[in-house]
């Protein structure tokens, strides 16, 4: 069962691009924007990451910290961060554990072909670790996601 508004987010989120464990407690006193995206260096995912990067200062001033999650490797995340100059952590959810817990991993369809993948979804987690808002795949505006959150 996917996590819903009102549920507590897991204490441990995963391993970032540098192999460091990321915990919710690392961001005490801040709201967390935890966004799940399909793949590094693809057009929609790059637009979304750049929107969040461009709006990062405003998001931080509003009390948010941004964390991206995809099933790509830490090495892929490092290249993506360097190429796009991203100022936030990306979690390498290679075992899909976090994606499955949040309900963002499942069967997708493109051009009639079915495959498993990540549903682009953003969770807003408050200072107590409670999920207070979810942007579902059809709601996420990749080009203007930071403004959407604010």
Secondary structure category: alpha/beta
Give the tally of β-strands. 9
Order of helices and strands: EEEHHEHEHEEEEH
CATH topology: Glutaredoxin
Unreliable segments (pLDDT under 50, ≥5 consecutive)?
Answer: none
Tell me what the CATH architecture is: 3-Layer(aba) Sandwich
Total domains:
1
**Sheet with most strands:** 5 strands, mixed
Tell me the helix content. Answer: 25-40%
Mean pLDDT: 96
SS element count, helices? 5
Superfamily at the CATH H level? Glutaredoxin
How would you sum up the global shape? globular
User: What strand order characterises the main sheet?
Assistant: 5-4-3-8-9
> What is the straight-line distance between the termini?
28 Å
How large is the share of residues in beta strands?
25-35%
Compute the gyration radius: what is it? Answer: 14 Å
CATH class category label: Alpha Beta
State the gist of this model:
The chain has 150 residues and is of the alpha/beta class.
Overall description:
The chain has helices spanning 43-54, 56-61, 74-84, 97-102, 145-149; strands at 12-15, 21-23, 31-36, 64-70, 89-92, 105-110, 113-118, 121-125, 131-135. By secondary structure, the protein is α/β, with parallel strands linked by helices. The chain has a single domain (12-149), classed as Glutaredoxin, CATH 3.40.30. The strands form three sheets. It has a five-stranded mixed sheet with strand order 5-4-3-8-9. It has a two-stranded antiparallel sheet with strand order 1-2. It has a two-stranded antiparallel ribbon with strand order 6-7. A hairpin with a 2-residue loop joins β6 and β7. The protein is globular and about 45 Å long.
